[in-house]
Amino acid sequence: MQPTINDHQVQLSEKSNGIHHEKYLTRRTLLIGNLAHFLHDGFTDMLYVFFPVWQAQWSLSFTQIGLFKTLVSGSMGLFQIPSGLIAQRVGRIRVLLAGTAVTGLAVLLFGWVTQPWLLGLLLILSGVGSSVQHPISSALISDAYTEVKGRRRALSALNFTGDIGKLVFPAAAAFLISCFQWPTASRLLAACGFLLLLILALAAKGLGPTTISPAPENKPAAHKLLLGWKGYQAFWSLAAIGVIDGATRMAFLTFLPFLLQEKGAGVNTIGFALALIFAGGATGKLVCGILATRVGILRSVIITESLTALCISGMMVLSLGRALLLAPLLGLALNGTSSVLYGSVPELVPEKQRAQAFSVFYTAVLGSGAIVPSVYGLISDFMSLQWTVTIIALGALATLPLTLPLRGRFQ
User: Fold this and answer.
1) pLDDT digits (tens, 9 = 90+) for 148-167
2) What is the annotated signal peptide range for this record (predicted)?
């Protein structure tokens, strides 16, 4: 019996509904990843506004401030891979929600801290909670988008929303600290975080299979990715560039508020400067994406890293007013490179190893960002803040030779 026209229409309708449903789930997945990135990056980078306030309250040295940054970035980096393994067992969305709740709780408890060592413990807790966001959000979106161009656009959007969080939360922190005392500011910011967590949970409801991380079928290959060099030289070169880029970014942003203080800036001005930098960084995601399509990924990295070194030097020697004018361009160069790097990870590893590759990549980047603030803090205490900023600027140029193994590896 031949199928009737009505049967054919029903089949077409069911196929169309299936496509629409798949697109709907893909968009929801992108929303979840973007919202989580917005919140976690915002919570992490608003700490730059709190650092000078905490230094003044407890008479801390630059080494101790660097240690604070080491604690939060170190715990975030160390738990990248464990969070991915836990997600394979209990589900990605569950781990993402739990980590977000932990970070929000840590920020809330900032407001009741009376000793710096207690604050250090809460910074560790905050870093552990935020460790789930990068690998899980990136893997969710990479799996949801099967085409290379669509995946790259989605990962660029993911990084863009993270920069929006970096813009909003530091500015909000500076405003709230100027209106209230910093403990009250931290509690209000935590309340905003829990509201966004509720929205995140509602958006994630009913996603089903997309919440589960597929277990790697080829364990030897995964092991080779984590430990081997042969066959993955391009990935490790990209990771090395990410390490230096992340170290430069985190170290400079940690000590930028103190550099601005030496120029006469107050809390509001510091928050404004950070907002300008992160606004430039958000723009940099778009600009660097366009630049990468025009001149290629490698040339884009060379241009942005060279511009980063030049702008950091400018922030050191210019007056406060001129430094503020330079801040958006610095942000464009400082943050714009990251979306190009993150979006290139899936093109250098097999599909089944993407989640692990993202975990390794983020662990390396955050690990470098955890170590260098303490090192540069020691340099600042024993030499000067000016020397520290000079070394940071020169460090950005160390990425240039690492672009050589990446030639011809991108579409």
Assistant:
1) 667 767 777 787 788 889 88
2) none
